[in-house]
Amino acid sequence: MQIYLPIAEVSVNAFLLLGLGGMVGILSGMFGVGGGFLMTPLLFFIGIPPAVAVATEANQIVASSFSGVLAHFRRKTVDLKMGTVLLVGGLIGAAFGVVIFNYLKSLGQVDLLVTLCYVVFLGVVGSLMFIESLNALRKSKKGTAAPVARRQRGWIHAMPFKMRFRTSGLYISVIPPVLVGLSVGILSAIMGVGGGFIMVPAMIYLLGMPTKVVVGTSLFQIIFVTAFTTMLHATTNYTVDIVLAVLLLVGGVIGAQIGTVIGARMPAEQLRVLLAALVLVVCGKLALDLLLEPSELYSLGVAGGH
Question: Which of 50, 96, 195, 221 fits 114 for a cystine, CB–CB 3.0-4.6 Å?
Fold first, then answer.
């Protein structure tokens, strides 16, 4: 069943979009990730223009993060004070990211920038995750426990503007959380991702937050940053395709329920290896698309909207 996407200006099979949404929803339920870093490249592969894919995917992340954060609120695993500090940086970063995005769009270079960002980030994150999860798998087979990350008292504790975060049990400067939020906000605007795959490790290893409050706090910040990003893209670029967003959302909600059930039955180490392998496959496909000669060397289009 072909459906026309008015903003993307392409016809796509509705069941394919529902299937993609469902597949990423399953991954989201299994691995506890927003899935934006996989969904956006998958939309590129089926012919959705990168500018539309980025803006629309940010919209889908709002819904999936909102349902996730409600569960964390019930468990009292959200540090609202830390989330607010991260949010301040995130909103500034998102606004800055949309300015960069719009400038490159006017130059006609935004598709290349988005794809390059994905190749670099997915390559780095996928490789690190793959090495770390293989080590964890090896240790679990030997029966030795993985070492617990120690909280380091380094340069972060020497910085000014300290604040007490009671839920996280921290007394640190607000500068590092603001900078973490800022970088994730820029990524959210340019790549259409929640940024959880960068924010979660940064919160654990850089800020020294306890793991149990990290995911909930990350989701809390992601909701507002991605909502703000979507609004900016919709009002400045007009690149949010509501038909595409609804189809992905329906598939994602159903898939997340299935993924949660599967995730509960599989060992955590195996899940991480699978996710890392998937990230590297998507990265390889994007890199190939950049390097290989396209079938049509020239395409007719209106440059810069003139």
Answer: 50
What is the CA angle 23-25-30, rounded to 5?
100
Q: List the chain domain ranges.
A: 2-143+151-291
Compute CA distances 156 → 82, 85, 165, 169, 200, whole Å.
15, 15, 14, 15, 17
H or E element at residue 39: helix 36-45
Query: Tens of pLDDT along 217-268?
Result: 887 888 888 888 888 877 877 777 788 888 888 887 777 777 777 766 766 6
In order of 136, 210, 282, the CA distances from 249 in angstroms are 33, 31, 21
Residue 226: strand, helix, or coil = helix
- SS3 call for 142: helix
Spatial distance between the Cα atoms of 182 and 95, rounded to a whole number of angstroms: 10
Q: How many CB atoms lie within 10 A of CB 264?
A: 9
Tally of CA atoms within 13 A in the half-sphere of 209 that contains its CB = 29
* Separation between Cα atoms, residue 20 and residue 23, nearest integer Å: 5
What residue type is assigned to position 246 of the chain? Answer: V
- pLDDT tens figures, 93-113: 989 988 888 888 788 777 787
Question: What are the counts of helices (DSSP H) followed by strands (DSSP E) for the chain?
Answer: 10, 4
Q: Cβ(258)–Cβ(29) under 8 Å?
A: yes
